[in-house]
Amino acid sequence: MSQSHYSDAEDSLTDTDNSGLRKRKLWDPETESITSEIKDLLDDDVNSLVEEDCIGCPLPSTPEDENVLDSEMSDVLKAAVLAALLPKFSGDEMDITTLAQNAATQAEQVVRKMIAVGWSVCHFHHLPDWLQDNDFLQRGHRPPLPSFRACFKSIFRIHTETGNIWTHMLGCVAFIGIAIYFLMRPTLEIEVQEKIVFGAFFAGAIICLGCSFVFHTVNCHSQFVGKLFSKLDYCGIALLIMGSFVPWLYYGFYCHFKPKVIYLSVVCALGITSIMVSLWDKFSESGWRPFRAAVFMTFGLSGIIPAIHFGVVEGWFNHVSQKSLGWLILMGVLYIVGAMLYALRVPERWFPGKFDIWFHSHQIFHVFVLGGALVHYHGISEMAMHRVTIGQCEIPDQLIY
């Protein structure tokens, strides 16, 4: 911080009277020692905050922000000195302790503004341990940003999380729009129970995609915030899988009440188990990535059993059966392939440093999850249309057939 900032504050305390004579400076005998003391205090406070909030990350601002940052720091520091000095001047005395405390408070605000406004991307090895997740992504990482405002502003910057944020943020907005359109249709077109069934899927998709994009936005805020939102992210995945099962089982076993209830109960039990596992602290650690993928893949693949049952009930060569199972299989392939790429960290594992910003495994996984959800929506819509077309069940409530 340049000495000129303090001299500007000093000059602002000097004025002229009506006769044009200059008044005596209120802090004239000790100006140099006081400003020196304040400057040392501010420098120490800045260093401590930098060590606390941006461990190992380059703090200097990006070139386009230097002028803005310098102006903000200058204004705030002037205000700090003036706010501390002016109320304390009665004659020639002033309270140096109060001055130092007020200036230190203002200095903290300056540093937090500096981190929020002027951060630049880091190399992987410059990140603190709690932000080191994928060492094959070498450059373009965000440093710790201890401000939610700064985290959300980073949505519009280019870094390793940009693609992860935008894929699921746009997907979340899309499903909110689809859900509003579907659920607002007149009851004569879509019955209430149909809306509830589709609503379970919409809720799972919106929660999953919403928690995902928020997690990838704020995971650099702090270790506590990162862990908290990672748990919400994984819980969202479990809810998406649960919500996806509901309409498929409802329409697939529309005329077979008992199997439908049994399968829905099993799905709910598996979903609750997955959520409980997701809340385990170690579950979000980078070393447990394959285990995370295995948990959700196992949950999803549990749908093979009701799919086989559905094929037996409807007939393997039945047109409706083939069409319904076809969309289900395509959804499963998208989810499984995406999860495999995520677990193996492909393609960045093969080309470290080449997919730091675009097309790395987590980004591809996000695209596949969004694609799988859209495919599933189309598939259950086809099943619902078929059910409306054929009318009521001929022989309801059969256990197997």
Automatic annotation (TrEMBL):
<comment type="similarity">
    <text>Belongs to the ADIPOR family.</text>
</comment>
<protein>
    <recommendedName>
        <fullName>Adiponectin receptor 2</fullName>
    </recommendedName>
</protein>
<dbReference type="Pfam" id="PF03006">
    <property type="entry name" value="HlyIII"/>
</dbReference>
<feature type="binding site">
    <location>
        <position position="366"/>
    </location>
    <ligand>
        <name>Zn(2+)</name>
    </ligand>
</feature>
<dbReference type="InterPro" id="IPR004254">
    <property type="entry name" value="AdipoR/HlyIII-related"/>
</dbReference>
<keyword id="KW-0862">Zinc</keyword>
<keyword id="KW-1133">Transmembrane helix</keyword>
<keyword id="KW-0812">Transmembrane</keyword>
<feature type="region of interest" description="Disordered">
    <location>
        <begin position="1"/>
        <end position="27"/>
    </location>
</feature>
<feature type="binding site">
    <location>
        <position position="362"/>
    </location>
    <ligand>
        <name>Zn(2+)</name>
    </ligand>
</feature>
<feature type="transmembrane region" description="Helical">
    <location>
        <begin position="261"/>
        <end position="280"/>
    </location>
</feature>
<dbReference type="GO" id="GO:0038023">
    <property type="term" value="F:signaling receptor activity"/>
</dbReference>
<keyword id="KW-0479">Metal-binding</keyword>
<feature type="binding site">
    <location>
        <position position="216"/>
    </location>
    <ligand>
        <name>Zn(2+)</name>
    </ligand>
</feature>
<feature type="transmembrane region" description="Helical">
    <location>
        <begin position="357"/>
        <end position="377"/>
    </location>
</feature>
<feature type="transmembrane region" description="Helical">
    <location>
        <begin position="292"/>
        <end position="313"/>
    </location>
</feature>
<dbReference type="GO" id="GO:0033211">
    <property type="term" value="P:adiponectin-activated signaling pathway"/>
</dbReference>
<feature type="transmembrane region" description="Helical">
    <location>
        <begin position="196"/>
        <end position="216"/>
    </location>
</feature>
<dbReference type="GO" id="GO:0005886">
    <property type="term" value="C:plasma membrane"/>
</dbReference>
<keyword id="KW-0472">Membrane</keyword>
<feature type="transmembrane region" description="Helical">
    <location>
        <begin position="236"/>
        <end position="254"/>
    </location>
</feature>
<dbReference type="GO" id="GO:0046872">
    <property type="term" value="F:metal ion binding"/>
</dbReference>
<feature type="transmembrane region" description="Helical">
    <location>
        <begin position="325"/>
        <end position="345"/>
    </location>
</feature>
<feature type="transmembrane region" description="Helical">
    <location>
        <begin position="165"/>
        <end position="184"/>
    </location>
</feature>
